[in-house]
Every structure is written in structure tokens, then in C-alpha cells.
Amino acid sequence: MVHWLTGKKLDFMNSSTQEVLSMLTEGQEQIFSSLKQNLSKIRAGKANPSMLSSVMVEAYGSMMPLNQVANVNATDARTLTIQPFDKSVLGEIERGILGANLGLTPMNDGEFVRLSLPVLTEERRKELSKQAKAMCEQAKVNLRSARKDAMDAVKALGADTLSEDEVKDGEGAVQSSIDAANKTIDSIYQTKESEIMAV
Asked: CA-CA distance, 62 to 151, in Å (whole number)?
């Protein structure tokens, strides 16, 4: 069986239900972490350096994350300032920001690149909320895939070592774990939505 996250082959033949649940929990933590990272890129009114975490800059012959070629600071609630370690990459930083499709226009003054975040309209807030919802739905799809793999693993154990009751208990434990994970995703979404909708 292949692990739904790493794509690596897993040997469940020597696993126990506890190990399957442990792998499921680990997978859920990775799903939550990835979701939170993706949601942090959605601008919710306040300038935050993590909004630029997806920006890649061509510098010294290779593509590098922005934070490896510059310091990024929020100077106030609506302005980000990017100070390159080497001024020769200012133009590349601008191109990287424009290429990342963040809806922000960089201003280069020869020393810094500044980004002014426009005030969010009600319509834009609703759009961002929909984006956040779609990210959370994708995380739930990933959870369903994890659930299927864990259920298959428990059934495989049943064919080898577990009694029928132990298989039922194992499947119940997997389902409980997935139900709790879905609630966590709903809670992450509600937090992000209230952050987006706050004027």
C-alpha cells in the first residue's frame, strides 16, 4: 500500500492497528500544516510578510525564495517593505512579485521594493473567503483519501492477524480520528473567514 502523502510504499503486513492510527494522525498533522500555510497566503487586510512566501526570485543564476535574497517587513498595517541583501536583484524581486500573481504592484525606489495593500472591498472579501473555503475542501478531500488508506490497512490486518471485532474497533477508531480532523478543518476555516471579513 502507498502512503497517501509521501507516495512511498508502506508495509502494513507487520503493522498493528495502533501503527495505522499513528500514521493517520501524522498524515492529518501534515494536512493541517499545509492548509494553514496555504491560508496564510490569503491576504486578510493586514500586511504580513508570509503573504510573499510563494514569491521566487531569479538571483545568482537560480530561482530562490524571496526571503533568501531580501528582508521582508510589515512597516504598517497596509505596507510591506522588501530590502534586498544585494541591490542588483531589485528588478528581479519586482518581476518575482508580479509573476506570483498576488494582485500587488511593487514600487522600486532604488533601495527598497514597497508594496501597498489596497483596502479590501466587500466583494473582494467574499472572493477571498471562497478561496479559503476551497482550500479547506481540498484538505477534506485529502482526509478522505487518508481515511480510505487507513480503512484498507485495517481490513488487511483483519485478513492476517485481527479478529472481526478488532477490525470493527480499528475502523471505528479511524472514523473517529477523521471526524475530529474534519472539525479541526472547519474551525481553521471559521478563524480565517472571520479574519477576512473583519473590516
From this structure: 44
Measured CA to CA in angstroms, residue 21 lies from 8, 15, 32, 88, 133 at distances of: 17, 10, 16, 51, 27
Cell of 120: 479590501
Widest Cα–Cα separation across the chain: 71
The dihedral region occupied by 61, where left means phi > 0, alpha psi between -120 and 50, and beta the remainder, is: left
Q: Are 198 and 45 in contact (CB under 8 A)?
A: yes
Reported as a single tens digit per residue, the pLDDT across 3-18 is 444 444 444 444 688 8
Query: What mean pLDDT value characterizes the chain?
Result: 85
Q: What residues have CB less than 8 Å from 127, skipping those under 6 apart?
A: none
Q: For residue 159, which phi and psi values (nearest 5 degrees)? A: -70, -25
- pLDDT of residue 37 exceeding 60, the answer is yes
Q: Which three cell numbers stand for residue 73?
A: 517587513
Crossing angle of helices 122-160 and 17-40, in 10° steps, is 170
pLDDT digits (tens, 9 = 90+) for 165-187: 888 999 999 999 999 999 999 99
Q: Which uninterrupted H or E stretch holds 111?
A: none
Measured from the Cβ of residue 175, the count of other Cβ atoms closer than 10 Å reads 13
What is the CB-side half-sphere exposure of residue 156 using CA atoms within 13 A?
A: 15
User: With 90 as the cut, is the pLDDT of residue 189 above it?
Assistant: yes
Check whether 61 has a pLDDT greater than 50.
yes
